[in-house]
Write a structure and sequence with these properties.
Length: about 400
């Protein structure tokens, strides 16, 4: 009978071989924990052992949490999915589209053909992109001296669109704008709103934008994959940011994130709290981009990301705000499962049909690292083998 021992072996071997500095993996079903493991070091520069309560920068795994906040406000009538979000955020109403550069190298900008909606922000169809996967945006930033989004400076949000709203899927700063909409609609700063409406009800005591002393004592260091192997590198998000980055600013633990995923498995309820209505979770979990496809990105910054193709050969879809595989996944997840990831190679999936969710966390750049993705696949398939044998 398959057991989780095989998962332990695979993760331990990878850490021992320095394929990853350290790794935490954990999985739950709708009844509770089914796996938890920690292997290797939190930081190769210091040598502290990885533990199941180690703290990671979860980066874009933040997005699903911010989307949940936005959908709570939709339920309360404070936000709408399909009205122009520029009514709340005048700056977004004035967004222009970057149509390349003229012969002198000056950016060519024009008004967008239609207003941006919250649904477009949550589905990455609004027109905003990330410089990591868009060379024109990188060029625009450099020419105008605009900082990257992880600066958490408001100036970083002044980027143009790279296509008209609703016309395609492309990954970008959309959920940072959704975080601004949450603030405008709720009257709270994003950190306070998330704490009061998501983290405290779910018992997510180690998740937040700012590192407390207890979290810092368990914080994982960042690492870069170099030709000579893994190297510890300095990294920390601004602790007193101009804005809280709803698209990627959170630090947290595997256990905390699984509490959030269990809430979704339970159709909006967990830990004695109701965060969303079942019909809202259903809306978030279905294809919201029609005939468009999602999940493929070509890198413009190889030190930060490899090329990304989450489900090669599959026309993946996007919910509010998750990648959806319309066919069965290669490691066992059901069609219609939800997933996404964070830049430093943190990943999660949620399978509503088989009632299981998992996370695997490292702190390695660049994103879409082949060794971590291989571990992810072994971990996921191991979890399904255990479930099937039960």
């Amino acid at each position: 009978m398959p057991t989780t021992t095989h998962i332990d072996q695979v993760l331990r071997q990878a850490a021992d071989a320095k394929e990853v500095p350290g790794v935490v993996a954990a999985a739950v079903n709708d009844k509770g924990a089914i796996y938890e493991g920690a292997f290797g070091k939190r930081d190769l520069g210091k040598g502290d052992a990885m533990t199941v309560d180690s703290v990671f920068w979860i980066a874009s795994m933040t997005k699903a949490i911010t989307a949940t906040a936005a959908m709570q406000l939709v339920e309360r009538g404070k936000l709408t999915l399909d009205d122009p979000v520029g009514k709340l955020l005048p700056q977004i109403a004035a967004s222009q589209v970057l149509d390349g550069f003229d012969a002198a190298g000056k950016a060519k900008l024009r008004p967008a053909k239609r207003p941006i909606t919250l649904r477009q922000l949550l589905t990455h169809t609004a027109g905003f992109t990330y410089d990591i996967w868009n060379p024109d945006l990188l060029r625009y930033e450099e020419k105008l001296g605009i900082p990257g989004i992880i600066s958490c400076e408001n100036l970083a949000l002044t980027m143009p669109l790279t296509f008209d709203p609703g016309e395609r899927w492309d990954y970008g700063i959309n959920i940072d704008w959704a975080g601004k909409a949450v603030e405008a609609a709720s009257g709270q700063k994003l950190d306070a709103y998330l704490h009061d409406n998501i983290f405290a009800p779910l018992g997510m005591k180690d998740t937040g934008f700012k590192l407390g002393a207890g979290q810092r004592a368990r914080l994982c260091g960042m690492h870069a994959r170099t030709p000579d192997g893994l190297a510890a590198i300095p990294f920390e998000l601004p602790q007193e940011p101009e804005f809280h980055m709803g698209g990627g600013g959170l630090y947290g633990t595997a256990r905390d994130y699984l509490a959030f995923l269990q809430m979704l498995l339970h159709k909006g309820k967990h830990n004695g709290a109701t965060l969303l209505k079942p019909e809202t979770v259903a809306e978030m979990s279905k294809n919201n981009i029609g005939n468009l496809t999602a999940g493929v990105l070509k890198t413009a910054a190889p030190d930060l990301s490899n090329d990304v193709d989450v489900f090669p050969g599959m026309a993946a879809k996007w919910g509010l705000s998750f990648l959806i595989n319309p066919e069965k996944g290669p490691a066992g997840r059901s069609a219609g499962s939800l997933t996404w990831a964070g830049l430093a190679n943190t990943y999660f999936w949620l399978d509503p049909a088989k009632r299981v969710a998992g996370v695997i966390l490292t702190q390695v750049l660049p994103f879409a690292d082949a060794k971590v993705l291989s571990l992810y696949g072994h971990f996921e398939s191991g979890i399904y083998q255990v479930l099937e044998a039960a």
